[in-house]
Amino acid sequence: MKEEQCYALLIDADNVSAKYIKHILTELSKYGIITYKRIYGDWTNTQHSSWKEELLTNSITPIQQFSYTQGKNATDSAMIIDAMDILYTNDVDGFCIVSSDSDFTRLVSRIRESGKKVIGMGENKTPEPFRKACDKFTILENLLSEADPGQAKSEKTPSILSKEQIEDAIIKMIIENQDSNRATSLGEIGNRLVSLYPDFDVRSYGYNMLSKFLEEFTRVQLIKDRNVVSVALKENLYLKENIDAYVTYLVKKTGKNGLELSTLGNKIYEKYREFKINDYGYAQLNQYVKSVEGIEVRQDGTILKAFCEK
């Protein structure tokens, strides 16, 4: 059974510079194995000379396409025909279309209709229709600046969503999950942001991790519980401080005997009727109680109890 995903990499040499190739290959390798590596252009044209050295170094197959009529882009047609041939062989899981040209928008939509994933890559000038058509779109300037922060400073600043728009989208996700009594994981946030905005990339904002990016927001906050990271509304966390203090007070009152978790839960719900453990990234009450500083949960016979740490 095939474990890794296989991708066909198709590059439009007319619309992408050779300086990106190593970064393109590195980025695509995060998704799986690159089984096809093809680049399309008129190789009799001197403007593609910078690509020629990279082809042999990176084992990329050049596809010659003469420009039969001036002003007509024959490269597009060659790429589209090859993409459809590969699609019908059904031996890849997805495609990576590298171009800054919107002419491939319909091709991307057609590939996705066949159940294949499409990763798009292009410069910041890439029109929005092509970006949105992809499952994931990566701005090439981001790859360049990630490898060498000073190298892409002269490039045009990417046209990106504002942080406020992203924060609003995240808050909407959290509230939707609260209505379904579910916690919101960091992974879900990342997946849904890419689903909403295929060209979303934290590197566009100067970060290399989604968690670091979210730490800058004022209305949401990360909750870390061992290896699980959840995202919650900050207003919920202000309430948590009061609940934590109440839990500590109740448990301390019981002394060394501890307080049964069921009793503790009833008291919390009586005092804070709006309390939902899912709002804080936890699935069970004992997980929440364990998160309270100075409180531990232990088994006492068949009963779970909360105790003050010694």
Automatic annotation (TrEMBL):
<protein>
    <submittedName>
        <fullName>NYN domain-containing protein</fullName>
    </submittedName>
</protein>
<dbReference type="Pfam" id="PF01936">
    <property type="entry name" value="NYN"/>
</dbReference>
<dbReference type="GO" id="GO:0004540">
    <property type="term" value="F:RNA nuclease activity"/>
</dbReference>
<feature type="domain" description="HTH OST-type">
    <location>
        <begin position="162"/>
        <end position="235"/>
    </location>
</feature>
<dbReference type="InterPro" id="IPR021139">
    <property type="entry name" value="NYN"/>
</dbReference>
<dbReference type="InterPro" id="IPR041966">
    <property type="entry name" value="LOTUS-like"/>
</dbReference>
<dbReference type="Pfam" id="PF12872">
    <property type="entry name" value="OST-HTH"/>
</dbReference>
<dbReference type="InterPro" id="IPR025605">
    <property type="entry name" value="OST-HTH/LOTUS_dom"/>
</dbReference>
